[in-house]
Amino acid sequence: MAEEHREIDALSGTATTGHEWDGLRELNTPLPRWWLWLFYITIVWSIGYWIVYPAWPLLTNSTQGVFGWHTRSAVIDDLDELKRQRGPMMDKLATASVAEIVNDPQLLDFARAQGRVAFADNCAPCHGAGGGGTKGYPNLNDDDWLWGGKLAAIEQTIRHGARSGDKENHEGSMPAFGRDNILKANEISAAADFVRSLSGLSTESGADLALGKKVFANNCAVCHGAEGKGNREVGAPNLTDKIWLYGSDKVTIMQGIQNGRGGVMPAWNGRLSEPIIKALTVYVYSFGGGEK
Amino acid sequence: MTAQVRTMSLDRPAPGAPALAHLVAEAEVGEVPPDDDIPLYAPRREIYPQSVHGRFRNIKWAVLIVTLAIYYLLPFVRWDRGPSAPSQAVLIDFPNRRFYFFFIEIWPQEIYYLTGLLILAAIVLFLMNAVAGRVWCGYLCPQTVWTDLFFAIERLVEGDRREHMQRDVRKWTVETYVRKGLKHFLWLMVAWWTGGAWVLYFADAPTLVKELATGQAPFVAYAWIGILTVTTYSLAGHMREQVCLYMCPWPRIQAALTDEFALNVTYRYDRGEPRCSVKKAEQLRTQGQPAGDCVDCLQCVHVCPTGVDIRGGANLGCIQCGLCIDACDNVMSKLGRATGLIAYDTDLNIKQRLEGKQAFYKLVRVRTVLYAAVIAVVGGVMIYTLATRDSEGINVLHDRNPMYVRLSDGALRNGYTIRIVNKQLKYREFIISVEGLPSTLVDFVGLPPRADGRQLVSVGPDQTKEVRVVVTDYSATPPAPSTSILFKLIDIDSGETAEMRDHFFGP
User: What's the whole-model pTM score?
Assistant: First the structure.
């Protein structure tokens, strides 16, 4: 259409481009030429990226760019820089005892920050993101500790675990009284009712608490204590408080007596570095349940 | 008579009136290129604005001196804040995340003051626009101020319009090169100083000046000086009116915001048309025929920094700096005719006068009143919040997991992470209490109690401190699934308090 005619629009006095679409014509208001040049400059500029950064794929590699910059090496550099920045504090964490860490506010803040990350990476799968625990995995926020809640005891448990096979681990587990034919079904039922009564929970009507008491004294008191207060030496839980690792309903308790219990906590010595184990100890301690 | 008067409006130039594109690119008027050579890109037309004297020029000089003086010198103004804070009156302290403005100190979480400031700036811009058009563009915009300064340097070195144009078209002599070289050198010096002043807002100015001079300043300071030198030099020295015509969004927005009552720099064609020379006008007048006041001297065009012919009506290219008013007034005075052929006026008034009616100005109208009201409200709210804001703060974050903890004796415990803010420039000690539960124990994890058994949190000057707090409820009755509780932070010396509500969760 451009060949046919170029008009001056009568209304605006501006030349048209000569294009027409269904009677609509376009005014020619040209862009400034510097704009065009800027556009060309950006194209030339973009060539710089090919030269400066890794760009062209080759058979086994790619062009490396004149500065040797690479996203992967940049991340490694950043991580090294982070390590360097944290270095002095990490060294302090490695040499200080957990008791010293707790008494140094600056070190405590640092340890808790490190512990939070390490906990999320290593502990949260079982104990939950905030250490809230779940059935079979203890809640680390409360004041009930199977193996002790003092700083040293928490550190010991994290280092060597429970029933983990480690040389210094916590040992002792709940026997399978039913499966191993030590107790009969009616004895298990009576013992479960009796255990519930220890913490004031309701018992089934017609429960034989006398039998339960007898069964308890003969079989359970060895580990759980005559009054059912538990024993941290063997990780036997206190049966008189309001906290139940597996649940407080009768069926769950009977399952425990029938089949036994023995949750495993892995040993982290050697798997986690010295400062991280201490950081975890302090972090778990500061959930609020730590014992003085 | 009326046939000869050009009727103009914002959106539709009168037939025969030069259209915008041609006002900007005067050289193209009348030239129609061959069909197969449609110019899609227009060459730049050099603008040689002529110097002018008058009221609006004086206003522009005053604005230029005041704004640039503030910009260049403000970083050196001192403000004593004691030993634990910088003593620079205006400082954007990125490493420490603080903004200082004389007696005001802004923390990053108070960035909403910036939001308020931006709202204020926008509405003030709208109000200026509703009252007198592009006041911002003509007098206050940095692009205008720096371009004006660069024009002044250009005229100083290369001479005024006529001299400069003649030298450019003649064969270039050594003198031409020397003058042009000197001009660019001075431009670069101003641009360099502009970048230098910029970085001084981000660090202690006297120290940084010393470091810059001795080559010990951080690389980022030199980089920013370089960037701003290049932008100032190219935008104010070379791009000039192209920024307003092609790059800036405000002319487009402004056109949508204006109305028929807004005062604009206006050519009063009711008085100016028909244009003719002084002699011709006298002849016509003696013959009793109509003759306009405009003598077509083009002074208004020659002084225009964007190369606009204001007689074509209001348009995008006009930044409404008022210099054409000064130029025309000077000519009218010499001719012994009334000034104000070009003046702040409205098209509405021109039509009123053409119809023999009284011109009127309507400053108070819905939009100006509303803009002023919004400015008053936003400004009032900002001043109120700024004046009454606390110098301490408490932020409470409830544990995500577990929501609550059952203790061995059946009590319920909730864990919180609390951040205490101390905005004062001294050490302060705080105590935290919890209200809303019948029987509670509040324990700061890992915080040894003082001799009197209280757990006090000390926070350093101008700092924050994070503490973990566990709240245990011993009440006999089981609490509701969620109880609203109040954390109260108390400064043990001054008794000042800050409060934050949160929840205590139960089963």
Answer: 0.76
